[in-house]
Design goal:
Elements: E1 8-16, E2 21-25, E3 36-39, E4 42-50, E5 53-57, H1 60-65, E6 76-81, E7 100-109, E8 115-120, E9 134-137, E10 140-147, E11 151-156, H2 158-163, E12 174-179, H3 181-192
Antiparallel strand pairs: 1-2, 1-6, 2-5, 3-4, 3-6, 4-5, 7-8, 7-12, 8-11, 9-10, 9-12, 10-11
Length: about 200
């Protein structure tokens, strides 16, 4: 379990979607084999350790459903270690299980170092993303500021732009999306009772 508050950024040291491997350098914190680390919002298990580097086995399913396969050596990735019991929950509950991967439609730079992010909203998430609700974008906990028929928006503060890779993102790049965990269960209950449709 995670909070969507990025602790640091690391860089891709190597990636090979054919041999299902990913390694990152500069991952901060104490990790052992079997530890969980969210990389761009994807919960991965540490499988290998070298000085200054962590290696992960990534399943073909994960590569096919996330933006990890599009990474290149040297790319910056958002990292967050798993939540420990008693840790403060500063963002929202994030499982690290990506619901969809969607393109950025626009990042509009605004006065004061802020930005407005607009992301395509896949049909399967349209009942799960609500204005003033939470969504994880590449693992970053964001508050939804607006929802359209096929997109949602969020305001990015200067700290988010400097502390995560969202600050270097561009239109048409694909980001990992995870709907709010509580909202997902509420929607599922309502759907099972015929009160909403997916």
């Amino acid at each position: 379990m995670f909070t969507g508050l990025i602790s640091h950024m690391a860089r891709v040291a190597s990636i090979d979607a054919r041999s299902i491997g990913l390694a990152v350098s500069g991952a901060a914190g104490r990790f052992k084999i079997g530890s969980s680390l969210a990389v761009n919002g994807v919960c991965l298990t540490v499988a290998r350790k070298r000085p200054g580097q962590l290696g992960f086995d990534v399943s073909p399913e994960t590569f096919s459903r996330t933006n990890l396969a599009a990474l290149k050596k040297g790319d910056r990735v958002n990292c967050e270690p798993s939540l420990k019991m008693g840790d403060p929950l500063g963002g929202h509950l994030v499982s690290g299980h990506v619901d969809a991967c969607a393109p950025i439609l626009e990042i509009e730079r605004m006065a004061g170092g802020f930005a407005r992010l607009r992301v395509a909203l896949p049909e399967r998430l349209r009942g799960l993303v609500a204005e003033k609700g939470s969504v994880a974008v590449d693992g970053v906990s964001l508050t939804v500021s607006g929802v359209g028929d096929d997109y949602f928006e969020a305001a990015l503060i200067p700290e988010t732009l400097s502390a995560t890779n969202l600050g270097s993102r561009r239109s048409r790049e694909r980001v990992n999306l995870e709907a709010d965990l509580i909202g997902r269960y509420v929607f599922s209950i309502l759907e099972s009772r015929g009160l909403v449709r997916a």
